[in-house]
């Protein structure tokens, strides 16, 4: 860390200028585009060009809700190395890494100005017809190809060390699995949810399942997972998809990535009921149906590609055992359900919320969406072990909606 | 490895002489007492003294059944560091480490000449009234205190790196979970078992469970386990117990250690029927009952200490969730059953056998014991998921005996 200093725009431009990415004597312009809470993000291009490159530099602290705590710069290494692994497995589905600088904790990577954050697209109720197939394939490839089923056992253990990420895991452990389930200082929630949240804190059956899910997150070194695969970590155009920001990557349970995605699609689903004042019912219902259908399609695409890859690429001798792949996939689905539930609950009760709900200014309206999210989240956690197919998850969401 | 050379007795004596363990000008004697297959073991003492010290030096290869393959010297580090961790948690229950030399891959440790290998004691049908309580406590302490339930999450992840042990794990992965289940070159078994073994190779239900157990071994980073806790890794006197040889230690499933112990007690149980020509039935039956009772007592001692420690020392906030500790313990028992089954099968079919059975020279007699071991082992694997308490395991052993 001795060489580390946070760049300003001028320094960022000079830094990139030396890398030989742009022709000599290019006339560069630089804009800082990050929110500066965790990272500095610079967009640098030739004056006349449409796109250029991104510099993402980790800051040695996290600034959340006015507070600031120290945060490892090693996450920049994790992110750049995970992007490289993902690129090998899913070429074109992550930003290209041009350069990584350990001393400055920065990565120079592909400019994605042509893409938008998926969450923004969902908030605008946009349909992405290719999305399910693309992300299903990304999940199947990145998860299965980094697991013991395909990797040489010695290499897998080396990868576990390479992607040991204790400080970033600790954030998830606290904010996803611990703090939302008691009256923790980090929590913040809509005061209209007081009663609901207190019920959650007193729900022993729920907390028992949360304990088991946290244990899985802590102990199940199954695959190199993205670790933070919400709809803000995915960028899209009408036909392209890129998965960004794998700074939480580590060897963990496959279901955590699948569940994170489901949770965020379901948060968008739940947010629709909060818009009842401003958007006609038909539009909201249609988009809810689109989202549930997308969840089903993501799972089907995931399962199809996972089975095909297993057949083609499994090197683990036990992989051929009769019934094993079916059981393996079923356990991913059940884990995904439980993790999706945790992730929904924490986005309403815990420190970090989602814009889908947060953008609803009227607290009463927002509470409607949040209550639905809490309802679905709890059911996913409690019934996770008994989920048998993807329709059990989407039906459960519909049932909670109509019961509510 | 550049400084490494294997010591001879003279060099071993000179090496110890310089450590200041013995008074200056002591007159030392040295005897090599290992079998030289994996390690050199020297016993060094003052001429007139009863006890001295042990030097254990790893060899850069393993010599098994005439073959020789390269084997990491890092296992000497793993062993000495695991002994130190175990000593902190269970003072007096492992040999004291006096000195560790990474370059020579050797550890100077406490002399246990006063103790015998437990397996030898079992072969002589000796009863050890304190054994169950001692080993139950060792298991509870070493497993729970190195888990996420007690350790700080950052420290646990650092320990996972410290005890990353891929080459030694690979040996277990191959010899316990893979090779015994097909016609592998490494296998060797009594020709009178041909039919039984072929049935095992064709048993899909069994191989499905084996695949899941292997997955658990590969992915479940639950605690720092000994990794090879058979009755040859335990030394005893009438009232003392020491656990030795943790060179397979790594972060794995708790049930693997518990299961290894159960397997080896059950192998001794099974071996009794092989002695029907030479030992009267009453004696053999009594010892079988003693062994099953010991298994029950080990588990009860383990569970009691585990619950007490959980109550006193759990730092993981979710540990208090209602019903969680019960579920946690139940899963250890079920895992132990499955792993015990694998371990029994591999000791009959695979590369490394146990003296309990191997010492029966008459192949017909030995096959009787081996068939019982295969019968119990298969049932433990297949029924592992449904085991509800320790008596389910001992009853199962009795039932297979009487059915056989």
TrEMBL record, chains A, B:
Residues 89-263 form the Aminoglycoside phosphotransferase domain. Pathway: Amino-acid biosynthesis; L-methionine biosynthesis via salvage pathway; S-methyl-5-thio-alpha-D-ribose 1-phosphate from S-methyl-5'-thioadenosine (hydrolase route): step 2/2. Keywords: Amino-acid biosynthesis, ATP-binding, Kinase, Methionine biosynthesis, Nucleotide-binding, Transferase. GO terms for molecular function: S-methyl-5-thioribose kinase activity. It catalyses: 5-(methylsulfanyl)-D-ribose + ATP = 5-(methylsulfanyl)-alpha-D-ribose 1-phosphate + ADP + H(+). SUPFAM superfamilies: Protein kinase-like (PK-like) (SSF56112). Its EC number is 2.7.1.100. Substrate binds at residues 228, 346. ATP binds at residues 39, 56, 110-112, 245-247. Belongs to the methylthioribose kinase family. HAMAP family: Salvage_MtnK. Homodimer. PANTHER family: METHYLTHIORIBOSE KINASE. Catalyzes the phosphorylation of methylthioribose into methylthioribose-1-phosphate. This is Methylthioribose kinase. It comes from Fictibacillus terranigra. The lineage of its organism: Bacteria, Bacillati, Bacillota, Bacilli, Bacillales. The gene is mtnK.
């Amino acid at each position: 860390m001795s060489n580390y200093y946070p760049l300003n725009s001028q320094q960022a431009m000079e830094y990139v200028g030396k890398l030989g990415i742009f022709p000599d004597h290019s006339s560069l312009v630089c804009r800082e585009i990050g929110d500066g809470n965790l990272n500095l993000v610079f967009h640098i291009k030739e004056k006349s060009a449409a796109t250029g490159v991104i510099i993402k530099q980790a800051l040695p602290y996290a600034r959340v809700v006015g507070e600031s705590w120290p945060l490892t710069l090693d996450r920049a290494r994790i992110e750049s190395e995970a992007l490289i692994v993902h690129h090998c497995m899913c070429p074109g589905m992550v930003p290209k890494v041009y350069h990584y600088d350990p001393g400055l904790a920065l990565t120079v990577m592909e400019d994605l100005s042509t893409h938008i954050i998926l969450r923004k697209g969902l908030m605008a109720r946009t349909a992405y017809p290719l999305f399910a197939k693309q992300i299903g394939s990304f999940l199947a490839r990145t998860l299965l190809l980094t697991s013991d089923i395909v990797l040489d056992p010695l290499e897998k253990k080396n990868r576990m060390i390479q992607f040991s990420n204790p400080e970033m895991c600790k954030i998830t452990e606290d904010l996803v699995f611990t703090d939302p389930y008691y009256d923790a200082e980090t929590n913040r929630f809509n005061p209209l949810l007081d009663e609901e949240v207190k019920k959650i804190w007193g729900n022993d059956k729920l907390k028992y399942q949360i304990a088991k899910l946290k244990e899985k997150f802590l102990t199940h070194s199954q695959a190199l997972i993205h670790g933070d695969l919400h709809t803000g970590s995915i960028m899209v155009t009408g036909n392209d998809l890129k998965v960004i920001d794998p700074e939480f990557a580590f060897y963990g349970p496959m279901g955590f990535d699948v569940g994170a995605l489901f949770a965020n699609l379901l948060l968008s689903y739940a947010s629709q009921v909060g818009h009842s004042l401003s958007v006609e019912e038909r539009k909201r219902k249609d988009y809810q149906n689109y989202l549930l259908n997308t969840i089903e399609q993501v799972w089907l695409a995931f399962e199809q590609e996972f089975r095909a890859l297993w057949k083609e690429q499994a090197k683990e001798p036990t992989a051929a055992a009769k019934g094993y792949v079916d059981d393996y996939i079923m356990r991913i689905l059940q884990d995904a359900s439980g993790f999706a539930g945790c992730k929904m609950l924490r986005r309403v009760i815990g420190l970090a919320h989602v814009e889908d709900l947060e953008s609803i200014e009227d607290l009463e309206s927002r509470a409607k969406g949040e209550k639905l999210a809490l309802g679905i989240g709890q059911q996913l956690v409690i019934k996770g072990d008994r989920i048998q197919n993807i329709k059990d998850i989407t039906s459960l969401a519909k049932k909670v909606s109509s019961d509510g």
